């Protein structure tokens, strides 16, 4: 496969349409480029060759460049679009993403869109350029349709930050309908809350999937856009604080001299999650439709019925148009990012004691794979495992809370009366029920429940001997 980087040939002046895109009368055009076009889409310099592959120019209007670059119109065509640039150079993530795409799609045409000269501006100026760059990408695709009968349904645009909105404009201006656009944490400032034709939207391709990883507000704005803008919008870890990007993690990174990585950790995480989905295709990370992060944290939203779950990243399945479909999942701090979600529902008999004790539950799931996995954190109902425990065999449950009486010495531990527990795997959708007339769980004492057998798809579970560390 030939790695392609398209270039736009130089013209002496802008067309009337493109002048209009720039705000009329060519004033902005003149201030940016002078009297002639510069390449909006160009090959990296020799110092920036991606993956050691020398890029070739694909020049609209010059059919011989198609042959020189080995362009295959019947194969997939994937365009990767960077965002706002502070350095004027391709960032490290671009190399990783190109390598992952080429490894996964060995026959695809891989095009890197270089608009560094326009993105390395003050942010508002770079935003104003996104529409024009999207228009030039559309012009390239229109020419490929005319020259090579390119099938737009085989075209996939992947845009990061501002590049996601560039992809949206390309989808607006192209003749026909793009197959897919993936937005990797699309930029928020100057795009949040605007009309759909001024940002990436579901109208821009047959399928638009979006990852949101940095939606936390600072001074009233967030780096990544908060609102759903695709057919599916996935918010890993709530779209907020990403594992591995905490203050402690960042201090370690900063101490190693990687201050820039500290600043962009959560924003760029969307790219690394997408790369992970390309590399670890046999371990897809599932995201689950939910109305909000708080409900997801309670484990309420682990259903895959009626297309309520989907793969995150490259392996996402095209869904029937369903606007503003928010999906959530938890991830690990590093690659492979995928983990395992379990929903736990407990029916406790002595409700008043529960309210008084304000219990915090700890869960340990033990499966058919060696070495059961213990959790160093838990939520009330959502349990996230960083390792696959295999077929669920045992559940170890303990809890802590306020003691029943502070007047007694030593204080008397509380007892919760649990009638039943249900554990559901989000990834397999398999359910395990623990039925009992009553199980007394003493404060701070681990209780282990074991799966004895399965009859007519109903697990029969009994209580094992109490396991104490």
TrEMBL record:
It holds the Pfam family Lipase. InterPro entries: AB_hydrolase_fold, Lipase, Lipase_LIPH, Lipase_N, Lipo_Lipase, PLAT/LH2_dom_sf, TAG_lipase. The active site is at residues 161, 185, 267. Keywords: Calcium, Lipid metabolism, Metal-binding, Secreted. Ca(2+) binds at residues 199, 204. It comes from the Eukaryota. It is found in: Secreted. This is Lipase domain-containing protein. It comes from Denticeps clupeoides (denticle herring).
């Amino acid at each position: 496969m030939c790695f392609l980087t398209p270039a736009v040939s130089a013209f002496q002046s802008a067309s009337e349409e493109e002048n209009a895109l720039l705000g009329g009368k060519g004033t902005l055009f003149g201030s940016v480029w002078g009297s002639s076009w510069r390449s909006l889409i160009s090959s990296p310099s020799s110092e920036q060759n991606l993956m050691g592959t020398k890029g070739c120019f694909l020049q609209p209007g010059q059919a011989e460049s198609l042959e020189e670059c080995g362009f295959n119109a019947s194969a997939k065509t994937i365009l990767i679009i960077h965002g706002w640039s502070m350095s004027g150079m391709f960032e490290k993530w671009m190399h990783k993403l190109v390598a992952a795409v080429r490894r996964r799609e060995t026959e695809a045409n891989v095009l890197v869109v270089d608009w560094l000269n326009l993105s390395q501006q003050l942010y508002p100026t770079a935003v104003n350029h996104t529409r024009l760059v999207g228009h030039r990408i559309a012009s390239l695709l229109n020419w490929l349709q005319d020259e090579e009968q390119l099938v737009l349904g085989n075209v996939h645009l992947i845009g990061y930050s501002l590049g996601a909105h560039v992809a949206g404009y390309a989808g607006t201006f192209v003749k026909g309908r793009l197959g897919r656009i993936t937005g990797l944490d699309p930029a928020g400032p100057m795009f949040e809350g605007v009309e759909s034709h001024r940002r990436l939207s579901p109208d821009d391709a047959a399928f638009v999937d979006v990852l949101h990883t940095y939606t936390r507000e600072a001074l009233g704005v967030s780096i990544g856009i908060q609102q759903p803008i695709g057919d599916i919008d996935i918010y890993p870890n709530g779209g907020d604080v990403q594992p591995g990007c905490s203050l402690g993690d960042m201090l370690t990174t900063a101490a190693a001299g990687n201050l820039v990585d500290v600043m962009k950790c959560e924003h760029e995480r969307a790219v690394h999650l997408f790369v992970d989905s390309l590399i670890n295709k046999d371990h897809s990370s599932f995201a689950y439709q939910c109305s909000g992060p708080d409900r997801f944290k309670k484990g309420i939203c682990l259903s895959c019925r009626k297309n309520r779950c989907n793969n995150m990243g490259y392996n996402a399945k095209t869904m029937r148009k369903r606007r503003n479909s928010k999906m959530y999942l938890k991830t690990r701090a590093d690659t492979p990012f995928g983990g395992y979600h379990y929903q736990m529902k407990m029916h406790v008999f002595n409700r008043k004691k529960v309210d008084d004790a304000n219990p915090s539950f700890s869960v340990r799931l033990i499966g058919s794979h060696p070495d059961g996995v213990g959790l160093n954190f838990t939520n009330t109902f959502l349990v996230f495992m960083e390792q696959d425990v295999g077929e669920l065999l045992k559940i170890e449950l303990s809890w802590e809370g306020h003691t029943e009486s502070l007047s007694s010495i030593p204080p008397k531990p509380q007892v919760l009366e649990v009638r039943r527990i249900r554990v559901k795997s989000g990834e397999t959708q398999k359910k395990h029920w623990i039925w009992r007339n009553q199980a007394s769980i003493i404060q701070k004492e681990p209780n282990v429940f074991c799966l004895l057998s399965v009859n007519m798809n109903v697990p029969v579970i009994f209580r094992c001997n109490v396991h104490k560390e």
